[in-house]
Predict the structure of S-(hydroxymethyl)glutathione dehydrogenase.
Amino acid sequence: MKTRAAVAWEANKPLTVETVDLEGPKPGEVLVEIMATGVCHTDAYTLSGLDSEGKFPCILGHEGAGVVREVGAGVTAVKPGDHVIPLYTPECRQCKTCLSQRSNLCTAIRSTQGQGIMPDGTSRFSCENPNKPLWHYMGCSTFSNFTVLPEIAVAKVREDAPFDKICYIGCGVTTGLGAVVYTAKVWAGANVVVFGLGGIGLNVIQGARMVGADRIIGVDLNPGKVEMARKFGMTHFVNPDEVGRDKVVQAIQDLTDGGADFSFECVGSTATMRQALECTHRGWGTSIIIGVAPSGQEISTRPFQLVTGRNWRGSAFGGARGRTDVPKIVDWYMDGKIDIDSLITHTMPLDEINHAFDLMHEGKSIRSVVTF
Ligand code: NAD
Ligand code: AHE
Ligand code: ZN
């Protein structure tokens, strides 16, 4: 079949909207009509050429929602007409990791996902002119009106939830809330610091408020993010340009009687990752890395920081097990327990997708959503 898609031909070039070819689902796969997709900073990161798994030409996008239109042989988890959210972290429920219940990092299809291909080693997307295969991205490629995914990589969700809002649960919402609830297990009364008040950090803030955190301190270079952060539960703000970039740790220790119980790095900078660790409390403070730093970069700190009881951890997709937890997060939204609407600051058609990247780089949006 043919489908409209925004193609990333090469790094650092605007996407172009094309009519591309898409092969139907093979055994174990499903064809999904994407109704809406968010644009996450990770899409921009891969487009920048700094992602070691970035392969061009490809169809980016990993934060979508849509409807199953066709299923391949042997598919049992979903049927045509089901509403789904694509999962870049699938849940096979059979691999060592899924069975362990200790991590959400299902290994069933991770290696082919990182190579831009389906589990059988081929791509379903191609373009006649020029005659080329187009690579999948994070197993999702939601910047296409239609895409093909393995059945283990879709979460079936309720049908009354609006696509143009719940697409954000496909990454940002789940990543932020999940890092608090599933990864860190932040306790009521904890002091929490969030570095980066963007599409992820604001969801960490609303997660921290949801579980009853005491102080919720936001750190960002862009004061334009403060108003939204306060609306979501931020109690204190630290601007590194105001306190001095080398005094951020001290400023946070002063606000938290010696250090935060939890910190979350939602920027993707190795410098803020170090600050996030070092601002946590001696003896028990835990820092969670969420931000994705360019491949090749390394984090550092004095081992003494760990010897004296700080914990350095990371979180992918908020530690959420996609098929199990994503439908529950959709329920939280539909029951009014979390706010997604306010964070979607811009909505646009696919033809304007490059504007979504511009708004992100200019710090003018929280989330842009593209509707088909
Ligand atoms: P975003 O662009 O919406 O937000 C980033 C924020 O960081 C902005 O508000 C920006 O002003 C702020 N910032 C930049 N430099 C800073 C600094 N030195 N100190 C403090 N603040 C600074 O991006 P996003 O969509 O929220 O994504 C954030 C990061 O999380 C990215 O690295 C993204 O790739 C990553 N991410 C990780 C996961 C995961 O599963 N681990 C999931 C989604 C996104
Ligand atoms: N290819 C990248 C990996 C980047 C990365 O860490 N991705 C996160 C999700 S970001 C979503 O916006 C993730 O899920 N990581 C776990 C995994 O298995 O990829 C790189 O830098 O090499
Ligand atoms: Zn993302």
